[in-house]
Design goal:
Length: about 230
């Protein structure tokens, strides 16, 4: 029999929790992963995405061993001592990764439920970001510095792409608590400007597509996945 290849790594698999994540955030999972990589998510959403990535990894492993077991029982290989050993080993491996998948699912739920509760709560009258605010925050999230010209004393903010944001715009965002400067650095050398957690939350909320009705969480079916792992063997 051919040797068992390891499961593929870093490959996102669709999980049964994806629809709940997408309903509460207003973004598909791939978009959320991209936002996480760009650093524009607040801490609760970033933690949710990190837990979901682990769930996707373990779900991929479950799928791999399930496919392998189907191949072993398809009649392609002779039923001999080596076949029984291979099936037994594959079952043990699938049980192990399924337990890891169930544990990862519970962590996703633990990160998801507070976000669902916060989304269902009434808004607290927070200001709405303008299109310019959103563009500025996205640009700053990629890296930005505030400089003071040595001769003219003029202040300017340069982002990683090389473009500049008017200092008045950055100052307004700073006063609103959406960005923060590292004032320990001298202005002539460049003071790093970063998006705060409040800025990430405001940006994420502003970029979420508007909804007219609250999406309710579907009731759990008895025995539906994920559930407490049952004794398999």
């Amino acid at each position: 029999m051919p040797p068992e290849p390891p499961p593929p790594a870093d490959r996102r698999a669709v999980s049964p929790l994806d629809h709940r994540i997408e309903a509460v955030t207003g973004h598909d999972v791939d978009t959320l992963w991209a936002f996480r990589d760009r650093g524009v998510l607040d801490e609760p959403h970033a933690h949710l995405v990190d837990q979901h990535r682990e769930l996707a990894r373990t779900q991929t492993s479950v799928t791999f061993y399930h496919t392998l077991l189907n191949r072993l029982t398809s009649g392609e290989f002779p039923v001999d001592t080596a076949w029984f050993e291979r099936v037994d080993r594959t079952m043990d491996q699938m049980e192990e990764v399924a337990d890891a998948r169930d544990a990862a699912a519970r962590k996703v739920l633990a990160a998801l439920e507070p976000i669902e509760a916060a989304t269902a709560a009434p808004a607290c009258g927070e200001g709405t970001l303008t299109t310019d605010d959103q563009a500025a925050l996205l640009a700053i999230a990629g890296g930005a510095k505030l400089y003071e010209h040595l001769l003219t004393g003029r202040l300017s903010v340069t982002v990683a792409s090389g473009t500049r944001i008017p200092y008045a715009e950055v100052r307004r965002l700073e006063d609103a608590g959406l960005v923060v400067r590292d004032i320990s650095r001298p202005l002539h050398a460049g003071q790093p400007v970063a998006v705060t957690d409040a800025g990430r939350a405001a940006l994420f909320a502003a970029r979420r597509p508007p909804t007219t009705t609250q999406v309710s969480k579907p009731p759990a079916r008895p025995g539906a996945w994920p559930s407490a792992p049952a004794q398999r063997r």
